[in-house]
Amino acid sequence: MLVLASLLAGPVAAYSALFGSLAVYVPGLAFTVLVMRKLGGDSAAFLRTAVLAEFGKLVLAGVLCAVVFIFVKPLAAGFFFLGLIGMITANWIGSALMFRDAPAMTQQRNNEQTD
Questions:
Q1: How far, in Å, CA of 84 to CA of 58, rounded?
Q2: Are the C-beta atoms of residues 22 and 2 closer than 8 Å to each other?
Q3: 24: Cβ–Cβ under 8 A, 6 or more apart, which residues?
Q4: pLDDT of 71
Q5: Which of left, alpha, beta for 29 (phi over 0: left; psi -120 to 50: alpha)?
Q6: Alpha-carbon torsion, ordered 40, 41, 45, 51, to 10 deg
Q7: pTM, 2 dp
């Protein structure tokens, strides 16, 4: 949505916002894939994987930002950071909505198990 709205400012703004969004989305996706593979197993292995995946996510986000700033010319830095912040905000809102519904889902699951 942000990329489409950025098209009003021009194609440079649109692809800058897209690259900013991808610089957050791709590391988050890699984190999710790595952590979900260890879900339900040994707690120590899960925690180790989660910590390493979080470190990798931060490093990958930094590398992607550096690569975009070095190799993408011209780049609208303001729209790049707008895309980056927009994706982070969308992740926060999605997580808040998911955790808001979690108690009701747990109660429903418990009711189904007792029936």
A1: 13
A2: no
A3: 61, 84, 87, 88, 91
A4: 96
A5: alpha
A6: -10
A7: 0.79
